[in-house]
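URGENT: need a sanity check before tomorrow's submission.

F., can you look over the Trehalose 6-phosphate phosphatase record below? I want to be sure the sequence and structure line up before it goes out.
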Amino acid sequence: MSKTPSLPSLDRLPPPARAAFLLDFDGTLVDIAPTPESVVVAPGLRDTLRRLRDKCGNALAVISGRPIEQIDHFLPDVPYAVAGEHGIAIRHAPGQPIERAALPPVPKAWMDEAERLATAHPGVRIEHKKAGLVLHYRGAPDAGPALGRIADEWVDATHGAFHVQAAKMAWEIRPAGIDKGHAVEAVMKSAPFAGRLPIFVGDDVTDEDGMRAAVGLGGAGFRIPHDFPDPAAFRAWLAMLAQGGDGAWGG
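C-alpha cells as predicted:
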C-alpha cells in the first residue's frame, strides 16, 4: 500500500476565492453502507454542499469510484464537476457531455468467472463497471484472500493494461494509469477550478492518489479517519465552512 502523504494543518485553508473542493463520496460524504445502493445522504448535506459551492465560486467537485450517473442520483445538481470511475469518466460542468478515457476491453472470461465466484462464495458481490469490475467480499470476509489471488492472476495476464486496487473489503480491477490523481489534475485544468488550490478529502487507499495530486498542486489532502474521525464529523466541518464567514477559513 502506498504511503499517505504529509497533510497540511486543518486550521490553514486557502480563502474561498482561492479554494476548490474535490470530495470523495462513499465513506467521506456518506457513511459506508452494506451495498452501494443502500447509502443514505444525510439530511442537510445537499444544502451544505450547495452553500459551499456558492462560496467557492462553483469550484466543488465529487471524485468517486462510482459511475457519474449514480452521483447524479444521490446528489442531483449539487457538484459543479463530477469525475466517476476513478477518473475514467469526467463531466467538467453541468450539462456538458461526459468525457471518457480510451480503455482496454474487459475480458468476458473475467465476468463469467466472477459470477461463478459469487455463486461459490455466498456473500460475495460483483460490481460491473464499464472499464472493469469490483469483487466485494464484505459479506464473506474469509473469501478476501482467494479473490485477491484470482484478481492478481487476471491482471498479470494483461501485461500492465489493468491493475488491482485494494479497497475497503473489495478488490477493484481497473485500467492502469487512470486514478483519482488523474481525475484531480484533469478537473483542476478547467474553470472555475483552474488557478485555485485543491482541497481533496477521501477515506480509502484509492483516495491517496487524489490527496497526492492535490498537495502537488499546492493544495491539501485529508483522509478519514486520520484527519476526521468519521463522515459525520467531516460533514459537520463542511457545514461550519459553508455557514461561517471567510475568517473561518484561515488562509
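My own read: The CA atoms of residues 168 and 237 lie 24 Å apart. Helices lie at 45-55, 68-74, 108-120, 144-156, 180-187, 208-216, 231-243. If you see anything odd, call me.
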